[in-house]
Amino acid sequence: MAKSIVYFASARAKFFDYDYGFLGKFEEILNRVNLKNYVAKGDYVPIKMHLGSQGAYRVVRPAFIRKLVDSLKNAGGDPFVTDTVRIPGLEYLRVASANGINELSTGAPVIMADGVFGSDSVMMPSGPILGEIGIASAIHDAPAMIVLSHCKGHIASGYGGAVKNLGMGGIAFKDRNGVHQRGRMHFLQNAELNWTSEKCSHCLQCVGACPHESISFDQDDKLVIDQQKCARCGRCARVCTEGALVLPLNIELFQKVLAEAAATVLNTFNKGKVLYINFVTEVQPECDCMPMADAPLIPDIGVLVSDDIVAIEKATLDLINQAQVIRDSKAGEKELTSAEHLFLKIHGKDPYLQVRAMADFGLGSEDYEIVEVLCKPKADGSTAPRSFGH
Ligand code: SF4
Ligand code: SF4
User: Fold this and answer.
1) Residues 248-261: pLDDT tens digits?
2) What CATH number has the domain spanning 4-185+250-372?
3) Which segments of the chain belong to CATH 3.40.50?
4) Tens digit of pLDDT for each residue in 52-108?
5) What's the CATH code, domain 192-246?
6) Which partner for 55 in 74, 275, 283, 291 could form a disulfide, CB atoms 3.0-4.6 Å apart?
7) Pocket around ligand 2: residues whose beta carbon is below 6 Å from it?
8) Which stretches of 60-210 are DSSP H helices?
Protein backbone atom coordinates (compact mmCIF):
# COMPACT_ATOMS: atom_id res chain seq x y z
CA MET A 1 0.00 0.00 0.00
CA ALA A 2 1.25 3.49 -0.83
CA LYS A 3 2.53 5.55 2.04
CA SER A 4 0.43 8.49 3.23
CA ILE A 5 1.85 11.83 2.16
CA VAL A 6 2.61 14.36 4.87
CA TYR A 7 3.71 17.77 3.60
CA PHE A 8 6.24 19.51 5.81
CA ALA A 9 7.73 22.98 5.98
CA SER A 10 10.45 23.82 8.43
CA ALA A 11 10.13 26.88 10.64
CA ARG A 12 13.68 27.82 9.62
CA ALA A 13 14.19 30.50 6.97
CA LYS A 14 17.30 30.00 4.86
CA PHE A 15 17.17 33.31 2.99
CA PHE A 16 15.93 36.84 3.53
CA ASP A 17 13.02 36.13 1.27
CA TYR A 18 9.30 35.68 2.08
CA ASP A 19 9.13 32.69 -0.25
CA TYR A 20 11.75 30.88 1.84
CA GLY A 21 10.18 31.89 5.15
CA PHE A 22 7.76 29.85 7.23
CA LEU A 23 4.69 31.75 6.07
CA GLY A 24 5.66 31.54 2.39
CA LYS A 25 6.31 27.80 2.63
CA PHE A 26 2.98 27.29 4.42
CA GLU A 27 1.28 29.15 1.59
CA GLU A 28 3.01 26.86 -0.91
CA ILE A 29 1.79 23.73 0.91
CA LEU A 30 -1.77 25.08 0.76
CA ASN A 31 -1.27 25.57 -3.00
CA ARG A 32 0.06 22.03 -3.42
CA VAL A 33 -2.77 20.25 -1.56
CA ASN A 34 -5.28 22.13 -3.75
CA LEU A 35 -8.02 23.10 -1.31
CA LYS A 36 -10.60 22.76 -4.10
CA ASN A 37 -10.29 19.02 -3.48
CA TYR A 38 -11.78 19.59 -0.05
CA VAL A 39 -14.23 22.47 -0.38
CA ALA A 40 -16.94 23.16 -2.92
CA LYS A 41 -18.08 26.64 -3.95
CA GLY A 42 -19.99 28.31 -1.13
CA ASP A 43 -19.20 25.65 1.50
CA TYR A 44 -19.17 26.87 5.09
CA VAL A 45 -15.88 25.42 6.32
CA PRO A 46 -15.01 25.20 10.01
CA ILE A 47 -11.36 25.74 10.87
CA LYS A 48 -11.34 23.73 14.07
CA MET A 49 -8.69 24.94 16.45
CA HIS A 50 -7.94 25.65 20.08
CA LEU A 51 -8.26 29.34 20.88
CA GLY A 52 -6.15 29.27 24.05
CA SER A 53 -6.91 30.41 27.56
CA GLN A 54 -6.34 33.40 29.71
CA GLY A 55 -2.65 32.81 30.41
CA ALA A 56 -2.14 30.16 27.72
CA TYR A 57 -1.19 32.24 24.72
CA ARG A 58 0.87 29.79 22.65
CA VAL A 59 -1.80 29.25 19.99
CA VAL A 60 -1.36 29.08 16.21
CA ARG A 61 -0.45 32.61 15.16
CA PRO A 62 -3.10 34.69 13.40
CA ALA A 63 -0.87 35.30 10.35
CA PHE A 64 -1.05 31.58 9.51
CA ILE A 65 -4.80 31.40 10.16
CA ARG A 66 -5.23 34.39 7.84
CA LYS A 67 -3.22 32.66 5.13
CA LEU A 68 -5.42 29.59 5.47
CA VAL A 69 -8.62 31.64 5.43
CA ASP A 70 -7.53 33.48 2.28
CA SER A 71 -6.62 30.20 0.57
CA LEU A 72 -9.97 28.64 1.49
CA LYS A 73 -11.79 31.69 0.12
CA ASN A 74 -9.78 31.47 -3.10
CA ALA A 75 -10.88 27.83 -3.36
CA GLY A 76 -14.51 28.95 -3.14
CA GLY A 77 -15.15 28.14 0.53
CA ASP A 78 -16.59 30.38 3.23
CA PRO A 79 -14.51 29.55 6.30
CA PHE A 80 -15.11 30.28 9.96
CA VAL A 81 -12.76 29.75 12.90
CA THR A 82 -14.24 27.68 15.68
CA ASP A 83 -13.90 25.70 18.89
CA THR A 84 -16.35 24.41 21.45
CA VAL A 85 -17.24 25.87 24.83
CA ARG A 86 -14.71 25.03 27.56
CA ILE A 87 -14.98 28.23 29.51
CA PRO A 88 -18.26 30.21 29.16
CA GLY A 89 -18.79 30.91 25.44
CA LEU A 90 -18.61 34.69 25.29
CA GLU A 91 -15.66 34.71 27.69
CA TYR A 92 -13.88 32.23 25.41
CA LEU A 93 -14.42 34.51 22.40
CA ARG A 94 -12.93 37.40 24.36
CA VAL A 95 -9.94 35.24 25.34
CA ALA A 96 -9.50 34.27 21.67
CA SER A 97 -9.49 37.92 20.70
CA ALA A 98 -6.92 38.71 23.41
CA ASN A 99 -4.81 35.91 21.90
CA GLY A 100 -5.06 37.68 18.55
CA ILE A 101 -7.77 35.49 17.01
CA ASN A 102 -10.76 37.48 15.78
CA GLU A 103 -12.44 38.33 12.50
CA LEU A 104 -10.27 41.39 11.93
CA SER A 105 -7.04 39.38 12.20
CA THR A 106 -8.10 36.12 10.55
CA GLY A 107 -10.56 37.43 7.96
CA ALA A 108 -13.20 34.92 9.07
CA PRO A 109 -15.87 34.94 11.81
CA VAL A 110 -14.84 33.28 15.07
CA ILE A 111 -17.73 31.35 16.60
CA MET A 112 -18.51 28.68 19.16
CA ALA A 113 -19.31 25.45 17.26
CA ASP A 114 -21.72 24.38 20.00
CA GLY A 115 -23.21 27.88 20.48
CA VAL A 116 -22.37 30.39 23.19
CA PHE A 117 -24.15 28.20 25.75
CA GLY A 118 -22.35 25.07 24.58
CA SER A 119 -25.55 23.08 24.09
CA ASP A 120 -25.97 23.17 20.29
CA SER A 121 -25.26 19.50 19.73
CA VAL A 122 -26.33 16.52 17.68
CA MET A 123 -26.23 13.10 19.34
CA MET A 124 -24.45 10.51 17.18
CA PRO A 125 -23.87 6.81 17.68
CA SER A 126 -20.28 6.28 18.74
CA GLY A 127 -18.33 3.21 19.86
CA PRO A 128 -18.18 0.66 22.67
CA ILE A 129 -16.98 3.11 25.33
CA LEU A 130 -19.31 6.05 24.74
CA GLY A 131 -22.30 4.47 23.06
CA GLU A 132 -23.32 7.86 21.71
CA ILE A 133 -21.87 11.35 22.01
CA GLY A 134 -22.99 14.91 21.25
CA ILE A 135 -21.16 16.52 18.33
CA ALA A 136 -21.02 20.32 18.11
CA SER A 137 -23.67 21.25 15.55
CA ALA A 138 -21.54 23.66 13.47
CA ILE A 139 -19.09 20.79 12.94
CA HIS A 140 -21.72 18.10 12.50
CA ASP A 141 -23.52 20.11 9.80
CA ALA A 142 -20.41 21.20 7.89
CA PRO A 143 -19.60 19.63 4.50
CA ALA A 144 -15.81 19.93 4.94
CA MET A 145 -13.40 20.86 7.71
CA ILE A 146 -9.84 21.92 8.40
CA VAL A 147 -8.42 20.60 11.66
CA LEU A 148 -5.80 23.18 12.61
CA SER A 149 -3.89 21.99 15.66
CA HIS A 150 -1.20 23.45 17.86
CA CYS A 151 0.80 20.40 18.97
CA LYS A 152 1.94 20.21 22.57
CA GLY A 153 2.05 17.91 25.57
CA HIS A 154 -1.01 17.09 27.62
CA ILE A 155 -1.31 16.26 31.27
CA ALA A 156 -4.01 13.60 30.75
CA SER A 157 -3.22 12.11 27.35
CA GLY A 158 0.52 12.78 27.05
CA TYR A 159 0.05 14.61 23.75
CA GLY A 160 -2.46 17.05 22.30
CA GLY A 161 -2.60 17.28 18.52
CA ALA A 162 -5.20 16.56 15.86
CA VAL A 163 -6.82 13.58 17.62
CA LYS A 164 -7.26 15.61 20.79
CA ASN A 165 -8.41 18.67 18.85
CA LEU A 166 -11.17 16.58 17.27
CA GLY A 167 -11.94 14.00 19.92
CA MET A 168 -12.33 16.43 22.77
CA GLY A 169 -12.79 19.73 20.93
CA GLY A 170 -15.35 18.52 18.37
CA ILE A 171 -17.64 17.34 21.14
CA ALA A 172 -20.25 19.73 22.50
CA PHE A 173 -19.92 21.05 26.04
CA LYS A 174 -23.32 19.54 26.86
CA ASP A 175 -26.45 18.18 25.22
CA ARG A 176 -29.93 19.74 25.22
CA ASN A 177 -30.69 17.94 28.49
CA GLY A 178 -27.71 19.55 30.21
CA VAL A 179 -25.58 16.39 30.30
CA HIS A 180 -21.91 17.34 29.96
CA GLN A 181 -20.85 15.49 26.84
CA ARG A 182 -17.15 16.27 26.96
CA GLY A 183 -17.20 15.77 30.72
CA ARG A 184 -18.32 12.20 30.19
CA MET A 185 -14.96 11.47 28.61
CA HIS A 186 -13.04 12.78 31.62
CA PHE A 187 -15.21 10.96 34.16
CA LEU A 188 -15.12 7.48 32.61
CA GLN A 189 -16.40 4.40 34.42
CA ASN A 190 -18.46 6.55 36.85
CA ALA A 191 -15.28 8.12 38.24
CA GLU A 192 -15.65 10.81 40.90
CA LEU A 193 -13.39 13.50 42.31
CA ASN A 194 -11.95 12.35 45.63
CA TRP A 195 -10.52 14.83 48.12
CA THR A 196 -8.35 13.87 51.10
CA SER A 197 -8.14 16.64 53.67
CA GLU A 198 -4.96 15.28 55.29
CA LYS A 199 -3.05 15.68 52.03
CA CYS A 200 -4.39 19.12 51.14
CA SER A 201 -1.98 22.02 51.61
CA HIS A 202 -4.66 24.57 50.73
CA CYS A 203 -2.50 25.92 47.92
CA LEU A 204 -5.70 26.82 46.01
CA GLN A 205 -4.26 25.72 42.64
CA CYS A 206 -7.43 23.71 42.03
CA VAL A 207 -9.56 26.79 42.71
CA GLY A 208 -7.54 28.88 40.27
CA ALA A 209 -7.54 26.16 37.60
CA CYS A 210 -11.30 25.62 37.64
CA PRO A 211 -12.75 27.40 34.59
CA HIS A 212 -16.24 27.44 36.04
CA GLU A 213 -15.61 28.70 39.59
CA SER A 214 -17.03 25.49 40.97
CA ILE A 215 -14.56 24.94 43.83
CA SER A 216 -14.44 26.65 47.19
CA PHE A 217 -13.42 25.87 50.75
CA ASP A 218 -16.04 26.13 53.49
CA GLN A 219 -15.62 27.57 56.98
CA ASP A 220 -14.02 24.31 58.14
CA ASP A 221 -11.52 24.42 55.26
CA LYS A 222 -13.28 21.54 53.57
CA LEU A 223 -13.23 21.48 49.78
CA VAL A 224 -16.69 21.92 48.27
CA ILE A 225 -17.60 21.36 44.60
CA ASP A 226 -20.71 23.05 43.27
CA GLN A 227 -22.12 20.21 41.17
CA GLN A 228 -24.45 22.58 39.32
CA LYS A 229 -21.50 24.56 37.98
CA CYS A 230 -18.99 21.72 37.59
CA ALA A 231 -18.41 20.86 33.91
CA ARG A 232 -16.54 17.66 34.77
CA CYS A 233 -13.34 18.70 33.00
CA GLY A 234 -11.03 17.19 35.64
CA ARG A 235 -8.60 20.08 35.48
CA CYS A 236 -8.68 20.65 39.25
CA ALA A 237 -7.42 17.14 39.97
CA ARG A 238 -4.70 17.39 37.35
CA VAL A 239 -3.12 20.48 38.87
CA CYS A 240 -3.13 19.09 42.42
CA THR A 241 0.48 18.17 43.00
CA GLU A 242 -0.19 16.94 46.55
CA GLY A 243 -2.43 14.08 45.46
CA ALA A 244 -5.18 15.51 47.64
CA LEU A 245 -7.73 15.88 44.85
CA VAL A 246 -7.82 12.87 42.59
CA LEU A 247 -9.85 11.82 39.58
CA PRO A 248 -9.22 8.14 38.82
CA LEU A 249 -8.37 7.86 35.13
CA ASN A 250 -7.44 4.80 33.10
CA ILE A 251 -4.89 6.33 30.72
CA GLU A 252 -5.26 3.70 28.02
CA LEU A 253 -9.03 3.94 28.13
CA PHE A 254 -8.86 7.75 27.99
CA GLN A 255 -6.76 7.68 24.84
CA LYS A 256 -9.09 5.14 23.30
CA VAL A 257 -12.09 7.28 24.11
CA LEU A 258 -10.41 10.28 22.49
CA ALA A 259 -9.94 8.23 19.34
CA GLU A 260 -13.51 6.93 19.52
CA ALA A 261 -14.90 10.45 19.82
CA ALA A 262 -12.62 11.73 17.03
CA ALA A 263 -13.78 8.88 14.79
CA THR A 264 -17.40 9.77 15.56
CA VAL A 265 -16.79 13.37 14.53
CA LEU A 266 -15.11 12.23 11.33
CA ASN A 267 -18.00 9.93 10.51
CA THR A 268 -20.15 13.03 9.99
CA PHE A 269 -18.00 13.95 6.94
CA ASN A 270 -17.71 12.31 3.57
CA LYS A 271 -14.34 10.67 2.93
CA GLY A 272 -11.68 13.09 1.76
CA LYS A 273 -13.38 16.20 3.12
CA VAL A 274 -11.13 16.81 6.14
CA LEU A 275 -7.61 18.22 5.98
CA TYR A 276 -5.23 18.26 8.96
CA ILE A 277 -2.67 20.95 9.71
CA ASN A 278 -0.32 20.42 12.66
CA PHE A 279 1.80 23.32 13.88
CA VAL A 280 4.82 22.04 15.77
CA THR A 281 5.79 25.38 17.21
CA GLU A 282 6.04 26.58 20.79
CA VAL A 283 5.66 22.96 21.88
CA GLN A 284 4.96 23.44 25.54
CA PRO A 285 4.36 20.63 28.03
CA GLU A 286 0.70 21.38 28.71
CA CYS A 287 -2.55 21.91 26.89
CA ASP A 288 -3.57 25.39 25.75
CA CYS A 289 -6.55 25.17 28.13
CA MET A 290 -4.35 25.54 31.20
CA PRO A 291 -4.28 28.87 33.04
CA MET A 292 -0.67 29.44 31.96
CA ALA A 293 1.83 28.56 29.25
CA ASP A 294 5.20 27.04 30.07
CA ALA A 295 8.41 27.53 28.07
CA PRO A 296 8.70 25.41 24.90
CA LEU A 297 10.36 22.01 25.29
CA ILE A 298 12.05 22.04 21.88
CA PRO A 299 12.84 24.63 19.19
CA ASP A 300 10.11 25.35 16.64
CA ILE A 301 10.02 22.55 14.07
CA GLY A 302 7.49 23.66 11.50
CA VAL A 303 4.14 22.67 10.04
CA LEU A 304 2.76 19.37 8.73
CA VAL A 305 -0.25 18.98 6.42
CA SER A 306 -2.00 15.77 5.40
CA ASP A 307 -5.40 14.25 4.80
CA ASP A 308 -4.42 11.24 6.92
CA ILE A 309 -4.88 11.90 10.64
CA VAL A 310 -2.89 8.84 11.69
CA ALA A 311 0.05 9.65 9.44
CA ILE A 312 0.25 13.29 10.44
CA GLU A 313 0.03 12.52 14.16
CA LYS A 314 2.67 9.80 13.94
CA ALA A 315 4.97 12.06 11.90
CA THR A 316 4.46 14.91 14.37
CA LEU A 317 5.33 12.77 17.38
CA ASP A 318 8.36 11.32 15.60
CA LEU A 319 9.66 14.80 14.70
CA ILE A 320 9.13 16.06 18.24
CA ASN A 321 11.11 13.16 19.58
CA GLN A 322 13.99 13.72 17.18
CA ALA A 323 14.39 17.36 18.25
CA GLN A 324 16.96 18.62 20.71
CA VAL A 325 15.30 19.60 23.96
CA ILE A 326 15.69 23.13 25.28
CA ARG A 327 17.70 23.01 28.46
CA ASP A 328 15.71 25.62 30.33
CA SER A 329 12.39 23.81 29.97
CA LYS A 330 10.44 21.01 31.57
CA ALA A 331 12.10 18.61 29.12
CA GLY A 332 15.55 19.88 30.06
CA GLU A 333 14.83 19.05 33.68
CA LYS A 334 14.31 15.38 32.83
CA GLU A 335 16.88 12.81 31.92
CA LEU A 336 15.72 11.75 28.50
CA THR A 337 16.71 8.57 26.73
CA SER A 338 16.18 8.06 23.04
CA ALA A 339 14.01 5.02 23.81
CA GLU A 340 11.36 7.13 25.48
CA HIS A 341 9.25 9.81 23.89
CA LEU A 342 9.69 13.08 25.73
CA PHE A 343 5.93 13.32 26.38
CA LEU A 344 6.05 9.87 27.97
CA LYS A 345 8.91 11.02 30.15
CA ILE A 346 7.15 14.23 31.16
CA HIS A 347 3.60 12.98 31.64
CA GLY A 348 4.05 9.24 32.10
CA LYS A 349 1.61 8.58 29.25
CA ASP A 350 2.48 6.99 25.92
CA PRO A 351 1.48 9.64 23.34
CA TYR A 352 1.28 7.06 20.54
CA LEU A 353 -1.65 5.23 22.14
CA GLN A 354 -4.23 7.60 20.67
CA VAL A 355 -2.58 7.37 17.24
CA ARG A 356 -2.67 3.57 17.27
CA ALA A 357 -6.29 3.67 18.42
CA MET A 358 -7.15 5.85 15.38
CA ALA A 359 -5.33 3.39 13.14
CA ASP A 360 -7.35 0.56 14.71
CA PHE A 361 -10.50 2.42 13.63
CA GLY A 362 -9.16 2.24 10.07
CA LEU A 363 -8.87 6.01 9.84
CA GLY A 364 -5.35 6.18 8.49
CA SER A 365 -1.93 4.65 8.19
CA GLU A 366 1.15 4.92 10.40
CA ASP A 367 3.22 4.42 7.27
CA TYR A 368 3.96 7.91 6.02
CA GLU A 369 6.26 9.77 3.64
CA ILE A 370 7.37 13.32 4.40
CA VAL A 371 7.39 15.69 1.42
CA GLU A 372 9.35 18.74 2.43
CA VAL A 373 8.49 22.07 0.83
CA LEU A 374 11.58 24.26 0.71
CA CYS A 375 10.15 27.41 -0.81
CA LYS A 376 7.22 28.99 -2.61
CA PRO A 377 8.17 29.34 -6.29
CA LYS A 378 8.00 32.81 -7.82
CA ALA A 379 5.26 33.70 -10.29
CA ASP A 380 7.53 32.68 -13.19
CA GLY A 381 8.20 29.31 -11.58
CA SER A 382 11.76 30.09 -10.49
CA THR A 383 12.97 29.24 -7.01
CA ALA A 384 16.05 31.43 -6.82
CA PRO A 385 16.11 33.35 -3.54
CA ARG A 386 15.90 37.12 -3.73
CA SER A 387 18.83 37.71 -1.39
CA PHE A 388 21.88 36.02 0.07
CA GLY A 389 21.68 33.15 2.51
CA HIS A 390 22.73 33.42 6.11
S1 SF4 B 1 -4.73 21.78 44.57
FE2 SF4 B 1 -4.77 20.01 45.96
S3 SF4 B 1 -3.51 20.64 47.68
FE4 SF4 B 1 -4.05 22.52 46.57
S5 SF4 B 1 -5.92 23.26 47.54
FE6 SF4 B 1 -6.57 21.97 45.85
S7 SF4 B 1 -6.85 19.95 46.75
FE8 SF4 B 1 -5.66 21.12 48.20
S1 SF4 C 1 -13.96 19.12 37.21
FE2 SF4 C 1 -12.92 20.47 38.67
S3 SF4 C 1 -11.99 22.09 37.40
FE4 SF4 C 1 -13.52 21.07 36.13
S5 SF4 C 1 -15.37 22.31 36.39
FE6 SF4 C 1 -15.48 20.63 37.91
S7 SF4 C 1 -14.59 21.48 39.75
FE8 SF4 C 1 -14.00 22.82 38.08
Assistant:
1) 888 889 999 999 99
2) 3.40.50
3) 4-185+250-372
4) 999 999 999 999 999 999 999 999 999 999 999 999 999 999 999 999 999 999 999
5) 3.30.70.20
6) 291
7) 209-210, 212, 214-215, 225, 230-236
8) 62-74, 89-98, 103-106, 137-140, 162-167, 181-186, 205-209
